[in-house]
Amino acid sequence: MFFGKVKTELSLGGILSSSIEIYKNKKKIKISKGTIINKNLLDLLLLNNVEHIKCAKLDDDEIDENISVHEISKKIIDSKKSNIIIQDPKNGRCNLVSSVDGIITFQPNQLFSINSVTNDVGIASLKAFSKVKKNQIVASIKAIPFGIKKNNLQNIINVCQECFKILPFQKKNIHLIQTTNQNTRAKLLQKTLEVTKDRLSSCGNNKIEEKKCSHEIKSICEQLKKSVNENADIILIFGTSAISDINDIIPQSILEINGRILRLGMPVEPGNLILLAEIKNSKKSISIIGMPGCARSKKENGVDWILWRKLCDLKISSDDINHMGNGGLL
Asked: What's residue 185's pLDDT?
């Protein structure tokens, strides 16, 4: 690629390296950076007594920046159902926009590999498994120079296949169990219900079935059995105090009705005292989440990271949770 100053009369076909202001019909106009100098623009530059112009001229083995980023964008989204819209490229940039509310999924190692092909293209995205809204920009593909070498473009395309996808939030049958004792304030229970409703509503789930019971194994078991029989998809349990041990009342109640404890604790703060469990009925496996005290607050915490995935029908392994420690200090 040539990049530098040339005599204006020799600039035909060049790419303007920075915006300039000139006159047309006695009116000042702005010519944007990246504009290709055609015959009309060349004549206008000469009419304005512009003797030299700084521009770029692509070599035969280079592809225009806008064509390049658009080609990458078409390959980098999941071809089956990405729920991503590709915006028209402009100034060497192509943005990817979510068409649904949900979470963005991709393998960070794949994105690293794509960005490692060449410094001439940079791909920035939201963090993997972030919550996204419809019409939100989730990733941006940017060409650094005005043209990308054909072999570099092909190498990027080879490793970027089906990287990004948005998983949409699903409607779920969600039950909330709140345990009480003689010191429990009605105000706290109401606040917890309202915060939980808001948290779920932001993910497209506007209905929740609330139950209350004493903070003892027998009472909790009864409410859990009711929720299982009512075909809940997700059961959220707020105890009078945080679950601090696998032998605590809530995990023991789950085990009592033949549930399975999957995990106690996660490397996210706030949110580390979370319990993940499941129980099966005749139709499916029902997720049970023992909620940490921080989930009574509207602020983002570890519970959100779990709920977002659950509401998108995404399985969560112990390794997935361990990876949450990177960036887990909220």
From this structure: 96
